[in-house]
Amino acid sequence: MNTQANNPQPQQAPGxxxxxxxxxxxFTSLLAAGLALLTMVxxxxxxxxxxxxxxxxxxxxxxAAIVADNISAAVVFRDTQTAKEMLGALRLxxxxxxxxxxxxxxxxxxxYVRERDPGFxxxxxxxxxxxxxxxxxxxxxxxxxxxxxxxxxxxxxxxxKSMSAVYQNLAIRFLSALLIAAGVMGMAxxxxxxxxxxxxxxxxxxxALAHTxxxxxxxxxxxxxxxxxxxxxRAVQLQGRVALVYIDLDxxxxxxxxxxxxxxxxxLRQVAQRLQSVVRGTDAIARLGGDEFALILxxxxxxxxxxxxxxxxxNVFQAPYTEGGQEVNVTCSAGVxxxxxxxxxxxxxxxxADTAMYRAKEMGKNRYVRxxxxxxxxxxxxxxxxxxxxxxxxxxxxxxxxxxPLISAADESLVGAEALLRWTHAELGxxxxxxxxxxxxxxxxxxxxxxxxxxxxxxxxxSWGAGNxxxxxxxxxxxxxxxxxxxxxxxxxxxxxxxxxxxLEIELTETVLMENMEAGAHTLHRLSQLGIHLAIDDFGTGYxxxxxxxxxxxxxxxxxxxxxxxxxxxxxxxxxxxxxxxLAHGLGLQVTAEGVETRDQAEYLIGQGCDxxxxxxxxxxxxxxxxxAFQQEHRADRWMN
Length: 641
Prior knowledge:
This protein is of the alpha/beta class. The strands form 4 sheets. Strands 13-14-16-17-18-19-20-21 form an 8-stranded mixed barrel, surrounded by 6 helices. The longest helix is centred in the N-terminal third of the chain and has 61 residues. The protein starts with 15 loop residues before the first helix and ends with a helix.
């Protein structure tokens, strides 16, 4: 799977062992067919030989009987001349090489030979046949037939025949059958070779499909695993190094959902082409699935050069892409691990490169991170948090909700509280909400955690008293808003926990709103119709588009604490806060300022027209029971004042 810069990767052909095995199978099949044909030819020849020999013996018996009957008179009268003439007639049979007539005493009376034979037997005894009348050898066939005269045996007729003619005929038949078999074998060979060529082409195509990503044309996960294993074996043999660069596109799902899957596939093809432009001929590129790619490098560079190489990978994404007439910007996060320094096997190398890539994501994306051993500790902690969180959601009691009061800017009365997640674990200690939510997002528990948070907050708020108008604010995630059952689940929670809808406020960040604009708009309108309050959390830190303020039934904006912390001394913070308040009031929305930590900040925000204040200057987040006590104290203080 070697690649050349700016050129597609060649498709991987079957390995030498596969080709050799396939060739050996084809050769064995042809050899077996050839041996079968040869065996058949030999069997036919053997049968033909036996049949010819049997027929020849039968014919010779008849021939001997006829000659013996005709020559009997010559034997009785010892007419040698007549006997010779009658024996001479046997020359018409090319197989007869000699014949003799012996009298009653067994002495040769007359004989015939095709070729001069001084050793022709002169007596019956010299024939060596004893009482036998037939003797068949490989070279000759001999018959001794009695010559019968009236009332006695007058002598013996001896005929000797050559088997050469039989063998000549058999040879001709054998060669003819062999030629026919060879022709059949040749045609079979051509057919097998042509079929084998077709099968080999099909195998090559299947092999290419098995090793090539259908969308991008680069190697797939199967090819990646084989190449990485081969490179690591090579590194062991040559005492070299291998680097694995794990790449994940940033926010690809958003682009895929926005422009469609066809455009997403086109974007992936462009990404593959750009990556091919930075890899060397000895490197390999593969798409592992989704928006994940990997580069396998024969590491012949030091760590500084590797760092530059990784930055080249990041930089290749900086130029915008054009797909389907739309210009889009896509960045990537990359992590790299090396063999044998960072891992001693394939699984460890992949895991460490993946860990480094996730660290790049956590650090803000669009960057390259080199694996460090300390990252595994963080990965182990995340894994432990995931396991513990699953257990907590099923039957644990370590999760709890704390509540930070919401104070009216007009008269500093208590109007509600924001529900904030807290988690104390026996082994992990205090797990921060950011860490818990991040793990929940990654492992798919965020929806379950979100519903647990909402149910717990609604249950606690219901305990504040039916006559108490305090509302509870709960944050929800993008995945939770995208849940098809979200509206029904919220209604069920309110009904089961006994909390009126107008006392629940759902907070969503601008990012959540924009990612679920079309899908979530209907749900948000239905929530608003039920009387549930909707608020935009961390306003000013997300998307710059304000279209959703007109399209969605929001009631409140929450100014992010990053704009509040520098008040009132920083002019740019004052300008931003003033603009947000004016914008919100102009659209008929209330404004909540969070992160209020000093009286100066509170007084400035009150002066600007903020409606609700939240921060340490009034109270820190507190458990549900403590919040009940805070309500009573706050109510008593207001009554005394």
